[in-house]
UniProtKB/TrEMBL annotation:
<feature type="domain" description="YheO-like">
    <location>
        <begin position="11"/>
        <end position="116"/>
    </location>
</feature>
<dbReference type="InterPro" id="IPR039445">
    <property type="entry name" value="DauR-like_HTH"/>
</dbReference>
<dbReference type="InterPro" id="IPR013559">
    <property type="entry name" value="YheO"/>
</dbReference>
<dbReference type="Pfam" id="PF13309">
    <property type="entry name" value="HTH_22"/>
</dbReference>
<dbReference type="Pfam" id="PF08348">
    <property type="entry name" value="PAS_6"/>
</dbReference>
<protein>
    <submittedName>
        <fullName>Uncharacterized protein</fullName>
    </submittedName>
</protein>
<dbReference type="InterPro" id="IPR039446">
    <property type="entry name" value="DauR-like"/>
</dbReference>
<feature type="domain" description="Transcriptional regulator DauR-like HTH">
    <location>
        <begin position="163"/>
        <end position="223"/>
    </location>
</feature>
């Protein structure tokens, strides 16, 4: 397929994005692409599979690509897998009348992604893919969870979503499986969230309790203990 200058620019932006999040155990799966179509050698530190080669593409990847191409907002996102420390993303790169849809699936460990998140206060600064062909992933990540468009959210809902993203970011930064969390780990996370003002927001205790898989009274107890300890100094 012949790509326009604009499409090539989209692709180069995507390559830059991939280079920021890829870990050593990454798989990048490209649908309807070949070395002739794209300079895929620029995607490093992961294996590259062509979804057209059925014998080399896992079924679950084909399903993810199908979901990506079928999603109205041109993007399908799977949340962080805390247990296995992986991040799964599927996205449609572009589509045109004379070319088939092109989908990308990324499976990578979360470590480099979290590093990138911590270096960027705003997710929008991380994903420089705000084009007609590639929806802005920074705003669509949370939207995909609820199937809502950003324009459908009220201001309070957007703030709530930002709080949830902050909670996820801090929990993931500890790099510990949920099942291996100790009480001190949870207390440390609550302390960090408290310092950053997360608990000043509505529903924050509920969201943190869900993220840490403990009861709301436990979170309130941590907060009171931490506030008592801080006031003693």
């Amino acid at each position: 397929m012949d790509l326009t200058i604009e499409q090539n620019t989209y692709y180069q932006n995507l390559v830059e994005f991939i280079s920021m999040i890829q870990g050593k155990n990454s798989d990048v799966v490209l649908s309807n692409l070949s070395e002739h179509d794209f300079p895929i050698e620029f995607i490093r530190n992961g294996s590259i599979l062509d979804a057209r080669k059925k014998d080399s593409t896992p079924d679950f990847v084909k399903i993810r690509i199908d979901q990506a191409t079928a999603t109205p907002n041109k993007q399908y996102h799977e949340q962080f897998n805390l247990k296995h420390k992986t991040l799964n993303i599927s996205v449609v790169i572009f589509e045109a009348a004379d070319t088939p849809k092109v989908a990308l699936s990324i499976i990578t460990d979360v470590t480099p992604f979290i590093t990138a998140l911590r270096a960027n206060a705003n997710l929008a600064k991380l994903y420089q893919l705000n084009t007609d062909a590639i929806d802005n992933l920074s705003s669509d990540i949370s939207m995909a969870r609820r199937g809502q468009a950003d324009s459908d959210l009220s201001f309070s809902e957007k703030i709530h979503e930002m709080v949830r993203e902050k909670i996820d970011q801090i929990v993931l930064s500890y790099g510990i499986d949920q099942e291996n969390f100790k009480a001190q780990d949870r207390r440390n996370i609550v302390s960090q969230l408290l310092d950053e003002g997360v608990f000043n927001m509505k529903y924050s205790v509920i969201d943190v309790a869900k993220a840490l898989e403990v009861s709301e009274p436990t979170i309130y107890r941590y907060i009171q203990e931490l506030k008592g300890g801080k006031s003693a100094f």
